[in-house]
Design goal:
CATH topology: AOC barrel-like
Helix content: 10-25%
Number of helices: 1
Strand content: over 45%
Largest sheet: 8 strands, antiparallel, barrel
Radius of gyration: 23 Å
Bound molecules: 2-acetamido-2-deoxy-beta-D-glucopyranose
CATH architecture: Beta Barrel
Order of helices and strands: HEEEEEEEEE
Number of domains: 1
Shape: globular
Distance between the termini: 51 Å
Structural class: mainly beta
């Protein structure tokens, strides 16, 4: 076949396809509710600031001496147990914004993605303030991917250990999803 023939075929095939895309929305219909399910997740978050292998890297800081407002980029491993050698089952990626004027509250925008077991490839999204100096705290789960599509829920956190460069946090997450 010569080139012009191939071109006219492509054009012909494209015309009906283009017609399908003549509007950007569907008809609005009632959403038939499916039964919701609940899954409880339990894991440990390992954060490291500084050192040779940081999981949290500050990328911006206000040039005002009276506050330490900053933005930190995170990629922290999640493990089954609290030990750093415990099996890694996923990672939390996103941002931490030190928004508070006294720096005790961090607002987190984190995607907790799982890489092992039944939830491999799925993730839960946390978008919440995190009052890090409180022993126990609650964060909102606002959505999810994969198995956790359309998720809502909450995460209960407790600091397991904290030293100069490492922070280990226990997470109990209740996720309601379809
Ligand atoms: C911070 O801001 C002041 C005044 O605008 C400027 O003189 C100083 O160089 C800045 N410092 C840094 C580290 O950018
Ligand atoms: C998570 O749940 C377990 C089992 O119920 C409990 O022992 C643990 O204290 C909880 N941790 C948090 C941070 O809520």
């Amino acid at each position: 076949m010569d080139k012009t023939l191939i071109l006219s075929w492509i054009l012909l095939l494209c015309i009906p396809a283009a017609a399908v895309y003549s509007q950007y929305y569907s008809e609005t219909m009632p959403c038939v509710p499916k039964e919701k399910q609940v899954t409880n997740l339990h894991f440990f978050f390992h954060g490291t600031i500084g050192g040779n292998n940081p999981t949290a890297v500050p990328v911006a800081r206000a040039n005002i001496t009276s506050t330490s407002n900053s933005i930190v980029v995170d990629d922290a491993p999640l493990t089954v147990g609290p030990e750093p050698t415990s099996e890694v089952i996923g990672n939390a990626q996103g941002l931490e914004v030190f928004a508070d004027r006294d720096t005790t509250t961090v607002v987190v925008y984190l995607d907790f993605g799982f890489t092992k077991g039944q939830f491999d490839g799925s993730s839960i999204i946390l978008f919440s303030r995190n009052p890090v100096t409180q022993k126990e705290r609650e964060l909102a789960v606002v959505g999810g991917r994969g198995t956790f599509r359309m998720a809502k829920g909450f995460a209960l956190l407790r600091t397991y250990s904290l030293d100069k460069i490492t922070l280990i946090v226990e997470y109990n997450v209740t996720v309601i999803h379809y």
